[in-house]
Hints:
Elements: E1 2-3, E2 7-8, E3 15-16, E4 19-20, H1 24-48, H2 52-56, H3 58-69, H4 75-110, H5 118-133, H6 136-147, H7 151-175, H8 179-187, H9 192-223, H10 234-243, H11 247-275
Antiparallel strand pairs: 1-4, 2-3
Amino acid sequence: MSAAPTIPAGPAGMTMRRWSRFTPAERIARSVFYVVALIAVVWSVKTIEVIPEFLYDAPEQTVDLFRRMWPIDWSFWRTMVAEALVETFHTATLGTIMALALSVPVALMAARNVTPSTTLNLVAKFILVASRSVNSLIWALLFVAVFGPGALAGTLAIAFRSIGFVGKLLAEALEEAQRGPIEALTAAGAPRGSILLKGYWPQVEPSFWSVALFRWDINVRESAVLGLVGGGGIGVALDTALNNLYWDQVGLCLFVIFVVVIVTEIATSAIRSRII
Protein backbone atom coordinates (compact mmCIF):
# COMPACT_ATOMS: atom_id res chain seq x y z
CA MET A 1 0.00 0.00 0.00
CA SER A 2 1.25 3.48 -0.77
CA ALA A 3 -0.10 6.88 0.08
CA ALA A 4 -0.14 9.78 -2.33
CA PRO A 5 0.70 13.25 -1.01
CA THR A 6 -2.06 14.67 1.13
CA ILE A 7 -4.37 17.24 -0.46
CA PRO A 8 -6.30 19.93 1.37
CA ALA A 9 -9.99 19.37 1.75
CA GLY A 10 -12.55 21.60 3.45
CA PRO A 11 -12.39 25.03 5.04
CA ALA A 12 -11.18 23.69 8.37
CA GLY A 13 -7.90 22.60 6.84
CA MET A 14 -8.79 18.91 7.06
CA THR A 15 -6.75 16.62 4.83
CA MET A 16 -7.65 13.49 2.87
CA ARG A 17 -5.26 10.70 1.99
CA ARG A 18 -5.59 8.96 -1.34
CA TRP A 19 -4.55 5.33 -1.14
CA SER A 20 -3.38 3.23 -4.05
CA ARG A 21 -2.71 -0.48 -4.08
CA PHE A 22 0.63 -0.24 -5.87
CA THR A 23 3.33 2.35 -6.06
CA PRO A 24 4.14 3.88 -9.48
CA ALA A 25 7.26 1.70 -9.70
CA GLU A 26 5.22 -1.42 -8.96
CA ARG A 27 2.63 -0.49 -11.59
CA ILE A 28 5.37 0.00 -14.17
CA ALA A 29 6.94 -3.34 -13.25
CA ARG A 30 3.57 -5.10 -13.58
CA SER A 31 2.97 -3.51 -16.97
CA VAL A 32 6.41 -4.54 -18.18
CA PHE A 33 5.73 -8.10 -16.99
CA TYR A 34 2.42 -8.25 -18.88
CA VAL A 35 4.03 -6.95 -22.05
CA VAL A 36 6.89 -9.45 -21.83
CA ALA A 37 4.44 -12.29 -21.17
CA LEU A 38 2.35 -11.28 -24.19
CA ILE A 39 5.45 -11.14 -26.39
CA ALA A 40 6.50 -14.59 -25.14
CA VAL A 41 3.09 -16.06 -25.94
CA VAL A 42 3.00 -14.57 -29.45
CA TRP A 43 6.57 -15.69 -30.10
CA SER A 44 5.77 -19.21 -28.90
CA VAL A 45 2.70 -19.46 -31.14
CA LYS A 46 4.75 -18.40 -34.15
CA THR A 47 7.59 -20.77 -33.26
CA ILE A 48 5.45 -23.92 -33.03
CA GLU A 49 3.88 -23.01 -36.40
CA VAL A 50 0.25 -23.76 -35.67
CA ILE A 51 -1.52 -24.59 -38.94
CA PRO A 52 -5.15 -23.42 -38.72
CA GLU A 53 -6.28 -25.88 -41.40
CA PHE A 54 -5.34 -28.78 -39.14
CA LEU A 55 -7.42 -27.34 -36.30
CA TYR A 56 -10.64 -27.00 -38.26
CA ASP A 57 -11.30 -30.72 -38.60
CA ALA A 58 -9.73 -31.70 -35.25
CA PRO A 59 -13.11 -32.34 -33.54
CA GLU A 60 -14.20 -34.53 -36.46
CA GLN A 61 -10.94 -36.48 -36.42
CA THR A 62 -11.20 -36.96 -32.64
CA VAL A 63 -14.72 -38.35 -32.90
CA ASP A 64 -13.64 -40.66 -35.73
CA LEU A 65 -10.69 -41.91 -33.66
CA PHE A 66 -12.88 -42.80 -30.70
CA ARG A 67 -15.32 -44.55 -33.01
CA ARG A 68 -12.50 -46.76 -34.23
CA MET A 69 -11.65 -47.68 -30.64
CA TRP A 70 -15.18 -48.93 -29.99
CA PRO A 71 -16.05 -51.70 -29.37
CA ILE A 72 -12.97 -52.63 -27.36
CA ASP A 73 -11.13 -55.82 -28.33
CA TRP A 74 -11.28 -57.73 -25.04
CA SER A 75 -9.45 -60.71 -26.53
CA PHE A 76 -6.29 -58.60 -26.50
CA TRP A 77 -6.45 -58.71 -22.68
CA ARG A 78 -5.65 -62.42 -22.55
CA THR A 79 -3.01 -62.40 -25.25
CA MET A 80 -0.89 -59.46 -24.09
CA VAL A 81 -2.41 -56.80 -21.83
CA ALA A 82 -2.80 -58.88 -18.65
CA GLU A 83 0.84 -59.96 -18.56
CA ALA A 84 2.04 -56.49 -19.51
CA LEU A 85 -0.03 -54.94 -16.71
CA VAL A 86 1.59 -57.23 -14.12
CA GLU A 87 4.99 -56.25 -15.48
CA THR A 88 4.01 -52.59 -15.14
CA PHE A 89 3.22 -53.01 -11.44
CA HIS A 90 6.45 -54.94 -10.88
CA THR A 91 8.44 -52.22 -12.64
CA ALA A 92 6.84 -49.43 -10.60
CA THR A 93 7.17 -51.27 -7.28
CA LEU A 94 10.75 -52.45 -7.71
CA GLY A 95 11.80 -49.08 -9.10
CA THR A 96 10.26 -47.31 -6.12
CA ILE A 97 12.02 -49.61 -3.64
CA MET A 98 15.35 -49.03 -5.37
CA ALA A 99 14.74 -45.27 -5.34
CA LEU A 100 13.98 -45.30 -1.61
CA ALA A 101 17.17 -47.22 -0.86
CA LEU A 102 19.29 -44.89 -2.99
CA SER A 103 17.66 -41.63 -1.96
CA VAL A 104 18.08 -42.05 1.82
CA PRO A 105 21.89 -41.60 1.87
CA VAL A 106 21.61 -38.75 -0.62
CA ALA A 107 19.00 -37.05 1.55
CA LEU A 108 21.22 -37.43 4.62
CA MET A 109 24.05 -35.78 2.69
CA ALA A 110 21.78 -32.97 1.47
CA ALA A 111 20.33 -32.11 4.92
CA ARG A 112 22.56 -29.40 6.36
CA ASN A 113 21.66 -30.16 9.97
CA VAL A 114 22.67 -33.81 9.49
CA THR A 115 25.73 -33.31 7.29
CA PRO A 116 27.46 -29.99 8.03
CA SER A 117 29.93 -30.40 5.15
CA THR A 118 29.21 -27.87 2.40
CA THR A 119 30.98 -30.03 -0.18
CA LEU A 120 28.80 -33.06 0.57
CA ASN A 121 25.71 -30.85 0.56
CA LEU A 122 26.54 -29.59 -2.92
CA VAL A 123 27.31 -33.08 -4.22
CA ALA A 124 23.99 -34.38 -2.88
CA LYS A 125 22.03 -31.46 -4.32
CA PHE A 126 23.71 -32.00 -7.68
CA ILE A 127 22.54 -35.63 -7.64
CA LEU A 128 19.00 -34.59 -6.72
CA VAL A 129 18.84 -31.95 -9.43
CA ALA A 130 20.35 -34.26 -12.05
CA SER A 131 17.80 -36.95 -11.25
CA ARG A 132 14.82 -34.61 -11.48
CA SER A 133 16.00 -32.73 -14.56
CA VAL A 134 16.00 -35.84 -16.79
CA ASN A 135 12.56 -37.16 -17.72
CA SER A 136 11.77 -40.81 -17.09
CA LEU A 137 11.42 -41.43 -20.82
CA ILE A 138 14.94 -40.10 -21.37
CA TRP A 139 16.25 -42.30 -18.57
CA ALA A 140 14.50 -45.25 -20.20
CA LEU A 141 16.10 -44.48 -23.57
CA LEU A 142 19.54 -44.39 -21.93
CA PHE A 143 19.05 -47.69 -20.13
CA VAL A 144 17.53 -49.33 -23.20
CA ALA A 145 20.72 -48.40 -25.06
CA VAL A 146 22.80 -50.01 -22.28
CA PHE A 147 20.75 -53.07 -21.25
CA GLY A 148 18.46 -53.48 -24.21
CA PRO A 149 14.65 -53.20 -24.26
CA GLY A 150 12.74 -54.76 -21.40
CA ALA A 151 11.53 -54.33 -17.86
CA LEU A 152 15.06 -53.89 -16.49
CA ALA A 153 15.54 -50.65 -18.39
CA GLY A 154 12.13 -49.42 -17.23
CA THR A 155 12.83 -50.31 -13.61
CA LEU A 156 16.15 -48.48 -13.59
CA ALA A 157 14.56 -45.48 -15.30
CA ILE A 158 11.86 -45.33 -12.63
CA ALA A 159 14.46 -45.66 -9.86
CA PHE A 160 16.87 -43.01 -11.11
CA ARG A 161 14.04 -40.59 -11.89
CA SER A 162 12.58 -41.01 -8.39
CA ILE A 163 15.81 -40.38 -6.47
CA GLY A 164 15.57 -36.62 -6.92
CA PHE A 165 11.92 -36.46 -5.88
CA VAL A 166 12.17 -38.66 -2.79
CA GLY A 167 15.59 -37.38 -1.74
CA LYS A 168 14.63 -33.71 -1.92
CA LEU A 169 11.45 -34.12 0.14
CA LEU A 170 13.18 -36.34 2.68
CA ALA A 171 16.07 -33.86 3.03
CA GLU A 172 13.59 -31.05 3.65
CA ALA A 173 11.82 -33.15 6.28
CA LEU A 174 15.17 -33.81 8.01
CA GLU A 175 16.02 -30.11 8.04
CA GLU A 176 12.64 -29.31 9.62
CA ALA A 177 13.13 -31.81 12.45
CA GLN A 178 13.00 -30.35 15.95
CA ARG A 179 16.36 -29.84 17.59
CA GLY A 180 15.27 -30.78 21.12
CA PRO A 181 15.49 -34.59 20.85
CA ILE A 182 18.67 -34.34 18.79
CA GLU A 183 20.42 -32.15 21.35
CA ALA A 184 19.29 -34.40 24.21
CA LEU A 185 20.71 -37.51 22.52
CA THR A 186 23.92 -35.69 21.66
CA ALA A 187 24.34 -34.48 25.25
CA ALA A 188 23.80 -38.04 26.50
CA GLY A 189 26.68 -39.23 24.32
CA ALA A 190 24.57 -41.27 21.89
CA PRO A 191 26.40 -42.48 18.77
CA ARG A 192 25.52 -41.03 15.38
CA GLY A 193 23.50 -44.06 14.36
CA SER A 194 21.33 -43.82 17.46
CA ILE A 195 20.79 -40.10 16.84
CA LEU A 196 19.53 -40.86 13.34
CA LEU A 197 17.28 -43.74 14.44
CA LYS A 198 15.98 -42.28 17.70
CA GLY A 199 16.12 -38.56 17.02
CA TYR A 200 15.47 -37.95 13.34
CA TRP A 201 13.61 -41.04 12.17
CA PRO A 202 10.54 -40.74 14.47
CA GLN A 203 10.06 -37.17 13.22
CA VAL A 204 10.45 -37.86 9.50
CA GLU A 205 8.82 -41.31 9.37
CA PRO A 206 5.31 -40.01 8.45
CA SER A 207 6.78 -37.87 5.69
CA PHE A 208 8.90 -40.76 4.44
CA TRP A 209 5.99 -43.16 4.03
CA SER A 210 3.79 -40.46 2.59
CA VAL A 211 6.41 -39.61 -0.03
CA ALA A 212 7.00 -43.30 -0.75
CA LEU A 213 3.31 -43.97 -1.41
CA PHE A 214 2.94 -40.82 -3.46
CA ARG A 215 5.98 -41.66 -5.56
CA TRP A 216 4.78 -45.23 -6.12
CA ASP A 217 1.49 -43.84 -7.38
CA ILE A 218 3.38 -41.59 -9.81
CA ASN A 219 5.65 -44.43 -10.89
CA VAL A 220 2.70 -46.65 -11.78
CA ARG A 221 1.54 -43.97 -14.20
CA GLU A 222 4.99 -43.37 -15.63
CA SER A 223 5.79 -47.07 -16.05
CA ALA A 224 2.60 -47.43 -18.07
CA VAL A 225 4.14 -45.43 -20.92
CA LEU A 226 7.79 -46.47 -20.68
CA GLY A 227 7.04 -49.33 -23.03
CA LEU A 228 6.67 -46.80 -25.84
CA VAL A 229 10.47 -46.44 -25.77
CA GLY A 230 11.26 -50.06 -24.91
CA GLY A 231 10.91 -49.96 -21.12
CA GLY A 232 8.49 -52.87 -20.86
CA GLY A 233 5.04 -52.97 -19.30
CA ILE A 234 1.67 -52.13 -20.74
CA GLY A 235 3.27 -49.46 -22.88
CA VAL A 236 4.62 -52.26 -25.10
CA ALA A 237 1.08 -53.50 -25.73
CA LEU A 238 -0.05 -49.95 -26.47
CA ASP A 239 2.86 -49.37 -28.83
CA THR A 240 2.19 -52.65 -30.65
CA ALA A 241 -1.46 -51.77 -31.16
CA LEU A 242 -0.60 -48.26 -32.36
CA ASN A 243 1.97 -49.50 -34.85
CA ASN A 244 -0.51 -52.03 -36.29
CA LEU A 245 -3.36 -49.45 -36.30
CA TYR A 246 -5.52 -51.81 -34.21
CA TRP A 247 -7.58 -49.05 -32.64
CA ASP A 248 -9.88 -51.39 -30.73
CA GLN A 249 -6.80 -52.76 -28.96
CA VAL A 250 -5.56 -49.21 -28.36
CA GLY A 251 -8.90 -48.49 -26.73
CA LEU A 252 -8.44 -51.46 -24.40
CA CYS A 253 -4.94 -50.32 -23.39
CA LEU A 254 -6.10 -46.77 -22.70
CA PHE A 255 -9.08 -48.03 -20.71
CA VAL A 256 -6.88 -50.30 -18.59
CA ILE A 257 -4.38 -47.50 -17.94
CA PHE A 258 -7.20 -45.18 -16.88
CA VAL A 259 -8.67 -47.77 -14.51
CA VAL A 260 -5.24 -48.56 -13.03
CA VAL A 261 -4.55 -44.89 -12.36
CA ILE A 262 -7.90 -44.45 -10.60
CA VAL A 263 -7.49 -47.60 -8.51
CA THR A 264 -3.94 -46.76 -7.42
CA GLU A 265 -5.02 -43.24 -6.48
CA ILE A 266 -7.84 -44.60 -4.31
CA ALA A 267 -5.58 -47.27 -2.78
CA THR A 268 -2.74 -44.90 -1.89
CA SER A 269 -5.16 -42.37 -0.42
CA ALA A 270 -6.76 -45.05 1.74
CA ILE A 271 -3.40 -46.37 2.93
CA ARG A 272 -2.11 -42.92 3.77
CA SER A 273 -5.22 -42.10 5.78
CA ARG A 274 -4.86 -45.31 7.80
CA ILE A 275 -1.14 -45.58 8.58
CA ILE A 276 0.06 -41.97 8.42
